[in-house]
Amino acid sequence: MAIPFSYNFRNLRVRKTTTVMTALGIALTVAVLLGIMAMVVGLNVALQATGHPLQMIVVRKNSNSELGSQVAREALLSIKYKDGIQKFPNGEPMVSGEIVRVINLPRKNNPEGANVNIRGLSQLGIEMRPGIRLAEGNWFEPGQREIVVGQSIALRYVNAALGDTLRFGRGDWKIVGVLDAGKTAFDNEIWGELNQIASDFNQNETLSSVLVRATDPIALEALKNSMADDQRLYLDAKSEVEYYSQLTSSADPVKFLGVFVAIIMAIGSSFAAMNTMYAAVVRRAREIGTLRVLGFSRGSILLSFVVESLLLSLLGGLFGVLLVIPLNGLKSGIGNFGTTFSEIGFDFRITPFIVLVGIAFATIMGIFGGLLPARTAAKQDILNALREL
Amino acid sequence: MWKYVPFAFKNSLRNKRRTILTIASISISLFLLGMLVAVYHAFYYREAPPEQALRLVVRHRVSLTFPLPEYYEQRIRQIQGVREVCPVSWFGGIYIDRRPEHFFARFSADPERIFLVHSEFKISPEQLKAFQSERTAAAVGKSLADKLNLKLGQKITIKGDIYPVDVELTIRALFESDVKGSDYVMYFHRKYLEESLAAARRGTVGTFGVLADSPESIPRIAREIDEMFHNSDSQTKTESEQAFQLSFLSMLGNVKLFLLSICGAVVFTILLVSGNTMAMSVRERIKEIGVLKTLGFTTSQVLLMVIAESVIIALAGGMLGCGLASGVCLLLSGAQLPFMPLGLPMPPVVLTISLAVAFAIGFFSSVVPALNASRVPITEALRHIG
User: What is the pTM of this model?
Assistant: First the structure.
């Protein structure tokens, strides 16, 4: 026979100060874990969604990023006539030569500024990225000093909204459009017309990268190999999806730190919960004795105390979830040194999965913290327990 | 007042299980706090050689990825207060493979000037000469050489990525610095790199290291350099070397806020744990406090005793936590951590801060329960059943 839940609820209520303090400790632990998870999930969303499965980014051999790569303009021609490349309806191969540079822009809450990718590309390049549309304004006109900025740039940087001008390269650039890249990495870029950007940055002979779309997955592999084998071109091709998901590694130290902190804090909080439960067991020794006399088995006493500890930690878990919910949608950015040398903006995301993880985490703490005290309670001798003051 | 310490100590021992759990909880949290403060310290209070206060870094205004024209060197040199200028370019590239342990800073620099600007690097005159007189020579910091097992005379190849060339170097000099880790760097001849490049890419420099005659003239020199190139194609941004290094950290995002908010959560959690414990143990002891008061102990003495007990417990946890943190840092001393190739140091100041936090937690967590306990009227306390 099990002891009713209401007994546990009432017990938690009777010692409210202790209950609230212990639950708050658990809540903070859960909040730290969830806060970091929300950040990592947001970053993953921003990067993993980027890229077309049939596309590859061609860079110079040994370069692991577009930024550090140079591809001669002549190579573009050799790439265009390779086999297995998808064609636009007008017969033009889906090959887009692009230039990527990094500039430093002052950010709204950081006057020191952060690094932002500038991408020079042609109309072909825009059409090869189907998920992208204009949220406001128009595309840049060839021959004009016009640019289009990603949504995240428009929001987070100074003077980067539609109609403003930004100064880089050889002078001012007018922002004629804001790009909605559906929260992909391109939301953090500034786009301009290829030749205009090339001449401003004095980069007329070389491109940074070439984006190529294959007709099918088999052709994609074949194209990759043929790029890598061509000693004359000295190029390397990476799948576009892989290229962007590899950027998530910039969050690895944060992820590691987050998990480390959460586990250590969880151990600490479990000890605290254990302490509270032990105190409860000692205080209620007589009560436990009475319950036993009434016929409740050792098993139901054990269960009852574990349930009480669980209730305590779930209360903490729920409170922890409530604490992090305001973080949802918070905009932030993380720098990437290894590959892009620029900042990737992302939103904190509190997903149902994260909430579940928080509750599960609290449950584990509750069980861990409650088991030993519950065992002590269940093992008590009836006569001694009844004699306790 | 000290005579109450043994009493408080005894009291803390009487519910051993509770005390042990509390100490365990506090020590684990303080271990975490110690590690976080150590990371914070390593990021923002990194020990810098005193010579750094005399150095500036000139870079392109738009971004570090844009080079500056080589001839700027001569013009910067003319500014009053500038003692030495050295062109320094980040080479990047790959040594052996892309694994993080093979990543280190490698610069092409002017071999005649780099050790004048970086006067904190100790290098023997013979090795300096050997480094300067061979076009493909490299000079390697001792901590880097130790970690990657590089020896004098060894040949190493670095595959270029930013620069489309591979450089083949021979290590001809090792240098050392008093500040651990600041010599985790390699330099090679700028001329060698220039000659390997296509004509169109020659004649540019990533940054200029500038040595000033006094720390006071740093802001003025920075201003004058930036004004000098204000109307040119490549505008500059000049800042002290320290500010330059911090700007890298700010690129990472708001690390400061991130670390501080976790530290805040940790401290607050320990405060709750410790406060809870004290509240519980005081509640069980109200009758005893009544007895103490009957015997003539004053309210403030009782207050003090309870606080002392809490502080003893918190400090015990703090010391354990600090010991644990130091041990872990010691274990990590050879590990490859992001931004800390030589592991995470645990300076005494971090331990002091952690212990101070432990003390404060012991004190503040017990104030409320202690006040409550000491204020209970004797008659009521003696009647208390708990």
Answer: 0.82
